[in-house]
Amino acid sequence: MEFEPRIIAFFCNWCTYTGADLAGVSRLKSPANIRVIRTMCSGRVDPTFILKAFELGADGILIGGCHPGDCHYSEGNYKALRRVHLLRKMLQSFGIDEKRLRLEWISASEGDVYQHVATEFTAQIRSLGPLNWKQRFEQKEPKEQLIAV
Amino acid sequence: MAKLTIEELDKLREKAVDKLRLRESGENRGRVIVHLGTCGIAAGGRQVLTALLDEVEKQGIKDITVTTAGCAGLCSREPMATIELFGQTPVKYADLTAEKIKKILAEHVVKGKLIKEYALAVGSERVG
Amino acid sequence: MPFRLNIMLCTGTGCVSNGAFPLLEAFEKEIKKHELHGEVAVIPTGCNGFCAVGPLVVVQPDEIFYQRLRIEDVPFLVQEHFLKGRPVKKFMYTPPETKEPIPVMSDIPFFGKQMLIALRNRGLIDPENIDEYIARDGYKGFTKAITTMTPKQVIDEVKASGLRGRGGGGFPTGLKWEVAFNTQSDEKFIIINCDEGDPGAFMDRSIVESDPHSVIEGVLIGAYALGVKQVYIYVRMEYPLALKRFYRALEHATEYGLLGKNILGKGMDLEIEVHRGAGAFICGEETALIRSIQGFVGEAQAKYIYPAEKGLNGKPTIINNVETWANIPQIILRGAKWFASIGTRGKNGDGGSTGTKVFSLVGKVHNTGLVEVPMGITLREIIYDIGGGIKNNKKFKSVQTGGPSGGFLPESLLDLPVDFDELLKVGSMMGSGGMVVTDEDNCMVDMARYFLDFVQSESCGKCIPCREGTKRMLDILERITFGQGTEEDLVKLEELSKLIVESSLCALGGTAPNPVLTTMKYFREEYEAHVKNKKCPAHTCKPLITYTIDGKICVEKGHGCGVCRKNCPQSAIAGELKKEHRIDPAKCDKCGICYDVCKFDAIYVD
Amino acid sequence: MITLKIDGIEVQVPEETTVLKAAEKVGVWIPTMCHNDLFEPYAVCRLCSVEVVRGKRSRVVTACNYPVSEGIEVLTDSENIRWIRKFLMELILSRWPNVKVVKEMAEKLNVGKPRYESLEKDEAEDACILCGQCVNVCREVVQANVIGFSYRGIKREVVLPLGEQSDKCIVCGACALVCPTGHIKMVIEDYKGKKPEFTLGPKTSIYVPTMQGIPRVPVIDAESCIHFKTGGCEVCAKVCEPHAVNYDMKDEIVEIDVGQILLSTGYDIFDASKMTQFGYGRLNDVYSSLEFEMMLSSMGPTSGKVLTKDGKEPRSIGIVHCVGSRDTNHHPYCSRVCCMYALKFAHLVCDRTDAEIYQFYIDMRAFGKGYEEFYVRILDEGVKVIRGKVAEVSEVTSSGEYKNQLIIRCEDTLAGKILEVPVDMVILCNAIEPRKDIDAVRRLFSISKSPDGFFLERHPKLDPTSTMSDGIYIAGCAQGPKDIPDTVAQASSAAARILSYISKGEVEIDPVRAWIDDKYCAGCRICNNLCPYTAIDFIEEKKISQINDVLCKGCGTCVAACPASAITGKGFSDAQIVAELEGLLAI
User: Rounded distance, CA C257 to CA C263, Å?
Assistant: First the structure.
């Protein structure tokens, strides 16, 4: 059966979550692989959650925040930007492809932008194939893991 | 002239009054009349007059007025002068020179003593 | 070496216009030529008073008076009198009736009856030399006031003297000062009124020209009494010589510490600022003068609150005429009793008019000039004794006192004593002292018209009665002098006068009708002549007179000489030699030349 | 207080009052012609002369400036006074026979034909009677001191300095106002190089902005008010009984602490000059809807009359719909209100003029209650409606003719023909667009905007009045174009919402908060300057950080950043999110 990527999305409650909702209300078609977690602000997304998600089998992570300057808490999205940049550098050392993590600014009125991002990201992850990051851990001895990387 | 105080103003007044004294006629003791008719001037009456005026000023005599008058008529004895002290008969002097007039001033005018040798005549022509 | 002779040469404006300054130079040149400059001094003095015979000289100490001197007389006079000491009869004053020259000035009748207080230094000092003023007890009154008297005592002294304003109103000066003294204010002002707009009046001018320091001393005493720091003098632009001499006097007084800060070391400060009047008669009135000083157009204000309480910038302001100020030093120096003993006294010993008054005697008298006479003197004494009677033995007709606000008094009132209240009683007023004598050749209606024309053009034009009323009266009078007057016009004149007097805003309007009222009262017959039979008895109103030649006299006596025909500018006379000449009334413009040139009195006017 | 008698009536007045004012107090009439309360009495006409008797002395004085004093007896109608007044009136009447003020006063004093003929007679009705009010108002009230009297005696005259127009004159018109005969006229012409353009601004320096304004109170325009120029005038302060005028009030920034904010900042209208084909701003008589609305209003520059720029009544008017709206180049959305106000314009123009009216529309959107009926009524009144978007407004017909009219070229899509309609006036229905400063306001209240630029509501269907931020509400055209009934409905709902919170007294804040566990907090202070709301303070004694509950908005940024994960986000704790992850990735 064809590989169905599992994508976890952290959407900020004020902008992206409402945008996604608008897309739904406006009957815009978008793939169902996106599994949404609502946080009060994109700044709330802790890098450990992302690693946890990859560990639990997620193939892609999408973070959605307000456009810079629109954040309900005025600076949350800037913090998220900083963390994602640092996290991307670490993913390489974990052997995870950088493209599997994506940060997008989607405001409450951009239902169509959400639809576009969702479809594109799902296709991208499907092309990358399953991560199965945890199984890689179990096959190798801890020491070899280190050497392999 | 610096700013005056009241005392200085009064002092200045005395000095100025003296300068103007000559303006008002009256309230002085007598008159010295130098006769400066044409012949009187030719005979040197002018010098006598200037000498007399210098002497009056030098001695600070305040109560005598010096005036000139016309020719007394005796041209040969010019320059002549008449001393008229109030209350006394006028005396005429003749053939005067600067020194003589100074002596007359000192003797006759100040001391009231007539100098006989210079005098020409006593009393005035207008008699009666 | 003191000068044995002082030549007091009058350089008042009157003599200056007759050439006094070139005369002064001629004297100095001549004296230098005879090296007499050590003994003989020429002193330019203020106005001597006897303007009719200017330019004039008084040789002191013998007080020999020379008159009508010309440049060409100077060499002879210097040599004859200054050098040789022989007074020259030719230049002396010879009264018309006796033909005998009078050498000594005080014997001349013109000066005889005068008593000098305001003009005490005229002709005796050089007005631009402060020392000479000080020599003649100058500033002694002021030092007496500032050292021995309190301000209150000074005011009481002025009140006791009975001095009244010499500007014309005659308001008791002491009373005015007392009002200002009692009004509390942080700042008070004194104004010297030298505007003197009356035509023919030049007393204030001569006072400032001959003795500016007497005015300054008077104001110093007033400022001491009232605690004034700032004085303004308001002088007409038409008095350049007076202005020059007053500025010079201010300089010297400031130099001597008599003006500016800490005067005479007594801690009193005083500044005198000169304001030049722009030639408006109205600015002689107190409130208009204040407006002019404040920079506004000179317009009179209602005087329901006197300037003494609220005047310049709303502060108490004492305004007095130049002559009033000139009297103050003598009052303080010689005491109020002495001053009150001169002039007239009321019934119960106060009031009346005390002291002397300066009159500018002008018109048809022999000795025109400036006379200072004690109050109470009669008009006849002024006109005949001092004035020397009417010129070219014409008949006296009237005398006008008080300028355009005064009135014309007939011969019947000649024995009236000159005094504030007496003059008011007969419808005239003292005024600033103008005294114009007219003779039979002056037409009273024309004189009234002239003064009304003056008042109408000088009225500030602010209030209806004065602006409109006087213009209507002027129109009526002009109609009368053109022979179109009607009986009813006379009634209208009286009505208009009553309205103007009662409802005008200021004194100018209030007194403007006086000339008309007095001429109608005392010379009614002239008005009747003009109105009823369209004739002008004094032959001045041209439209009403006609010149005709008496044919018989012209031929018999004059043999038709034709002199009048040749001289007539309008060529209105026709006729040939030995024939009777006739005047064509249409062409004749009544200039009167034929009447004057005809030696045989063949021409008569009616 | 001073007591005095006026015509036998006793009266008590304060110290400084004049006899005239005292007489007014007891109702005694005294004629005046040059008196004006604005400045010091000038006392030139003398008509107010009265007799003042003090003891046995009686004296004629002018009542307008004679100060009262104790115990005087004033006679305002004595025989002498009547004579003086009649005589003065005769003098005035004879010089200015036809001036209205003079004739009226002459009647009051029953003065017939004047006996004294005046050589300076001036028969003009607006002759200058030299009363001086203009000079005094210019000197004492306005304090510009420009005009004054000059010449003396009968030649007295009011003059400008050196006879020319002085630049000291601030054209305040005070002299023209006080002049009793109308001799001074205000001439509007090219003064100081400014052409009097078609100003929509206020006419006087003190004005009531709009009659319907709340509060309906006058306001002073500091640029044109004399007081701010010369320090003088203050006439408005003088005549205002309750002394409400205070010149030193300044604009002040007031800070008010509020719980909730309703943003109803309105809209701007689309600048039609961007669409050059309509010629707005280039051609005469092409008006925007707002300008035409101003022209229709009775307080407007033409006070309600419909006039072209050269003042004539138009014979035909064209109304162009959807200028800037439903236009991909400008605003794709429909401005919703233009159709209805266009019909209103047509109706009003029918009332006020008998001009031909053409409406150029795409769709006539008469959507509201009673709107369609109104549309039918307008059609009955003979308004011609043409379905077609206007292509161009020009002064020349396509055949090159110049008809001194505006030519509207459009395609009548129903008839399928190209039309060229000559009209005298064109009215454009400008689109409604968001205000220019909307982004700044939005960022201030941290709310977002919808695609068409207006404020974004919390939910387009279920909650159009509130916004994402709690306590911030929006109403009216700020949220999107709408007409008055909708705006009122929305505003009332916002107000009701606000009141409900206020009546409850306290506001529930949602439980989402951050909280620091003292045991784990190492005092590294990373979270202190992280918080945008400075809700985290450091406690020096305990060397740990603490969160202020009220300030914390619960965004969770600090929770994620805490290295010791000592901060837990209530409602969004780490455990909860991990549990969600596990749930989501279970299958």
Answer: 5
Closest chain A C-alpha to D557 CA, distance in angstroms: 5
Nearest chain A Cα to D527, which residue? A79
* Host domain of residue C151: 130-341
Would you give per-residue pLDDT tens digits along chain A (149 residues)? 688 899 999 999 888 998 999 899 889 999 998 999 999 899 999 999 999 999 888 999 999 999 887 888 878 889 999 999 999 988 888 888 899 999 999 988 889 999 999 999 999 999 998 888 877 777 655 555 555 55
Q: Is residue C216 part of a domain?
A: yes
Let me know whether C393 and C260 are in one domain.
no
Q: Give the mutation candidate from C282, C299, C458, C472 for the D interface (greatest D CB count, under 10 A).
A: C472
Distance (Å, whole) CA D292 – CA D284: 13
Mean pLDDT of C245-262: 92
**Residue D332 neighbours by CB distance under 10 Å:** 11
Asked if residue C321 and residue C181 are part of one domain, the reply reads yes
Cis preceding linkage at D451, omega within 30: no
Q: Are D368 and D343 in contact (CB under 8 A)?
A: no
Distances, alpha carbon A72 to alpha carbons A46, A76, B5, C85, D558, in Å: 18, 8, 91, 124, 15
- As a whole number of angstroms, the distance between CA D418 and CA D454 comes to 37
Of C297, C304, C465, the CB nearest to D148: C297
Number of domains in chain C: 5
Please indicate, yes or no, whether the overall pTM of this predicted structure exceeds 0.80.
Answer: no
Domains of chain A: 7-139 (3.40.50)
The secondary structure of C188-256 as a DSSP string is -EEEEEE---STT--HHHHHHHH-HHHHHHHHHHHHHHHT--EEEEEEETT-HHHHHHHHHHHHHHHHT
Contacts of B67 in chain C (CB under 8 A): 4-5, 61-62, 85
Statement to judge: residues C335 and C361 lie in one domain? no
User: In angstroms, rounded to a whole number, what is the distance separating the alpha carbons of residues C357 and C374?
Assistant: 6
Strands (E), D336-464: 356-361, 384-387, 390-396, 402-412, 417-423, 425-430, 432-433
Q: Is the same domain home to C450 and C509? A: yes
Residue C14 and residue C53 share a domain:
yes
Shared domain for C205 and C294, answered yes or no, is yes
Strands C317-321 and C189-194: parallel
How many angstroms separate the CA atoms of D459 and D295, rounded?
40
Type and span of the H or E element at D323: strand D316-323
Q: Which residues of D touch C501 (CB under 8 A)?
A: none
How many CB atoms neighbour CB C368 within 10 A?
24
Q: Which CATH superfamily is domain B26-122 in?
A: Glutaredoxin (3.40.30.10)
Contacts of D399 (CB under 8 A, 6+ apart): none
Helix (H, G, I), strand (E, B) or coil at C537: coil
Helices (H), A43-110: 47-55, 76-94
Residues of D in contact with A72 (CB under 8 A): 446, 468-469, 553, 555
Q: Which of C3-12, C247-256, C487-496 shows the lowest mean pLDDT across its residues? A: C3-12
- Is C71 within a domain? yes
- Chain centroid to Cα C487, Å, comes to 36
Domain identity same for C256 and C179: yes
CATH number at residue C510: 1.20.1440.230
Q: Count of A–D CB contacts within 8 Å?
A: 96
Domain membership of residue C347 (yes or no) is no
Among residues C126, C114, C129, the alpha carbon closest in space to that of C49 is found at C114
Mean of pLDDT values over B83-98: 80
Domains of chain D with bracketed CATH: 2-77 (3.10.20.740), 275-433 (3.50.50.60), 438-504 (no CATH), 514-586 (3.30.70.20)
Strands D2-6, D73-75: parallel, antiparallel or unpaired by DSSP? parallel
Q: What angle do CA D278, D279, D284 make, to 5 degrees?
A: 125
